[in-house]
């Protein structure tokens, strides 16, 4: 049976929380707060020369990093719009672009870089479109580097 969620309490969903990553740290932090949260461990680590990556692995990377953002946005934005508030946050990678918006590709991680760049573009579009829904709906993109 699903737990009842108080509509006034913050709800947090972390979709990628591999051990040692940013999502994992967020789960640990939110576990000590009074909000409701859920998490899912997603560990997609496709590396190697672009020409050696299978089409199946390429589709998996795009499905996780790009379509995963789209699916989640389509699921939560209607709820945020009805409440006229909310925050949608994604974690980008410095491997996808630099702060002056030039693409920065890392050798042997080309597919990862491409999928994160596409996810960044999608997040930026969501940010612009959210303004039409409410000034209190925020889309935030954290651009992270390596995590220790």
From TrEMBL:
Belongs to the short-chain dehydrogenases/reductases (SDR) family. InterPro entries: NAD(P)-bd_dom_sf (IPR036291), Sc_DH/Rdtase_CS (IPR020904), SDR_fam (IPR002347). PROSITE patterns: ADH_SHORT. It holds the Pfam family adh_short. One of its GO terms (molecular function) is oxidoreductase activity. The chain crosses the membrane at residues 12-31. Signal peptide: none annotated. It comes from Rhizoctonia solani. Keywords: Membrane, NADP, Oxidoreductase, Transmembrane, Transmembrane helix. The keyword Oxidoreductase applies. PANTHER family: NADPH-DEPENDENT 1-ACYLDIHYDROXYACETONE PHOSPHATE REDUCTASE (PTHR44169). This is Uncharacterized protein.
């Amino acid at each position: 049976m699903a737990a009842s969620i108080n509509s006034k309490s913050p709800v947090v969903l972390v979709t990628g929380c591999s051990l040692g990553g940013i999502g994992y740290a967020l789960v640990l932090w939110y576990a000590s707060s009074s909000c409701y949260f859920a998490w899912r461990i997603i560990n997609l680590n496709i590396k190697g020369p672009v020409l050696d990556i299978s089409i199946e692995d390429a589709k998996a990377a795009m499905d996780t990093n790009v379509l995963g953002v789209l699916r989640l946005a389509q699921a939560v934005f209607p709820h945020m719009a009805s409440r006229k508030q909310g925050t949608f946050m994604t974690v980008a990678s410095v491997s996808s672009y630099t702060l002056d918006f030039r693409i920065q590709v890392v050798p042997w991680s080309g597919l990862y870089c491409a999928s994160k760049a596409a996810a960044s573009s999608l997040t930026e579009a969501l940010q612009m479109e959210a303004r039409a829904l409410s000034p209190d709906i925020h889309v935030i993109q954290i651009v992270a580097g390596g995590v220790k």
